[in-house]
Amino acid sequence: MLTVITRSVAETVALGERLGKLASAGDFIALTGELGSGKTHFARGVAAGLGIDRSIPVTSPTYTLMNVYEGRLTFRHFDLYRLEGDQDAAELGFEDYFHGDGVCVVEWAERLQSLLPEERISVAFASLGGEERSISFVPFGVRYESVAEALAAP
């Protein structure tokens, strides 16, 4: 596991951008953490790393559940806050997107339970007060172990 402390929104976005630059087709990034812990800021960074035009607002799809953006790879940004659990996600057909040729970033990924892909990188956010965040990366699978190693490199 790799843990990074960010001290500002800009640092959280920049860390997400580093991950976005490392992303490959089919990647699944599972974000967990309390409200206001930095998940959406991080997702904005992933979008930037995927080459999505910075003038396009990347917002949390709390009510639409999924937003799609085009960049170097298709970026599917999910927010599952309003779902009760994996049954809701299954009924909406979200799993069809999880194994596609784009990159999926899922906020509130803990709501997927049994639908979480076996291979993924899980990113846990914790607020440390003010804009300071603890962001922990847990890789599941060889591909994501190499991604975590690349993130750890200076």
Brief account:
This protein is α/β, with parallel strands linked by helices and 154 residues long. It has helices at 9-22, 39-49, 86-92, 95-98, 142-152, and strands spanning 2-6, 28-32, 66-70, 74-79, 103-107, 120-129, 132-140. The chain is built from 5 helices and 7 strands.
Supply Rg.
14 Å
Q: Spans of 5+ residues with little confidence (pLDDT < 50)?
A: none
Main beta-sheet annotation: 7 strands, mixed
H and E string: EHEHEEHHEEEH
Average predicted confidence as pLDDT: 89
List its traits.
154 residues; alpha/beta; globular
Chart the SSEs and their pairings.
Elements: E1 2-6, H1 9-22, E2 28-32, H2 39-49, E3 66-70, E4 74-79, H3 86-92, H4 95-98, E5 103-107, E6 120-129, E7 132-140, H5 142-152
Task: Describe, in plain words, how this protein is organized in 3D.
The structure is a single chain. By secondary structure, the chain is an alpha/beta fold. It contains five helices and seven strands, in the order βαβαββααβββα. Helix content is 31%, strand content 29%. It starts with a strand and ends with a helix. It has a seven-stranded mixed β-sheet with strand order 1-7-6-2-5-4-3.
